[in-house]
Amino acid sequence: SNESGLGSAPIAAAAAQTDSCVEQGLVSMTGTFIDTMVICTMTGLAILITGANTSGLEGAAVTSLAFDRGLIIPFIGEYIVNIGLIFFAFTTIIGWNYYGERCMYYLAGIRSIKIYKIIFIILIAIGPFMSLKFIFILADIVNGCMAIPN
């Protein structure tokens, strides 16, 4: 849902091998719908309905609490959220790496991709040790810098 209007999704859509640009546009359009309308709405409703929003937790912890409270089987909510986070985090890392590589290639040529990859891997390694608030601030700044030229 954060991708809407940012201008980076066309990077991936342009690389698709398809015979119909209309079909590719429809496929690209469904990503935002599924993320925003299904996953974000389901998570938000789970947090509100179970009262997890008043727990003082934030991030994945509040979502885990909501799913633990809302599901009948104890502790299964935590596993559902953690497995979902693993898949979402992994695919996000791959996607943003691809976007960054294509942008670096466009802006600075093929030699810049190796430097970008090294910096990207270092940031992936130190990311888990940063505070959640700092990561969101950094992500907002970097996304804003990318949105301006797009």
Task: Tell me the count of domains.
Answer: 1
Q: Which residues sit in consecutive blocks of at least 5 with pLDDT less than 50?
A: none
Strand content: under 5%
Total number of β-strand segments? 0
Helix fraction, binned, reads: over 70%
The span between the termini is 17 Å
Question: Rg from C-alpha positions?
Answer: 18 Å
Structural class: mainly alpha
What would the average pLDDT be, to the nearest integer? 86
- The string of secondary-structure elements, in order, is HHHHHH
Query: What is the global morphology?
Result: globular
Number of H/I helices: 6
Q: Concise description?
A:
This protein has helices at 9-14, 21-50, 60-70, 76-108, 112-126, 132-147. It has 150 residues and is mostly helical. It starts with 8 loop residues before the first helix and ends with a helix.
Write the layout of secondary structure elements.
Blueprint: H1 9-14, H2 21-50, H3 60-70, H4 76-108, H5 112-126, H6 132-147
Helix pairs in contact: 2-3, 3-4, 4-5
Q: Would you kindly provide a written description of the structure presented here, covering whatever features stand out?
A:
This protein has 150 residues and is mainly α. It contains six helices and no strands. The protein has one domain. Helix 2 packs across helix 3, helix 3 runs antiparallel to helix 4 and helix 4 packs antiparallel against helix 5. The relative contact order is 0.09. The model has no long low-confidence stretch (mean pLDDT 86).
Please give a handful of descriptors for the protein shown:
150 residues, single chain, mainly alpha, 0% strand
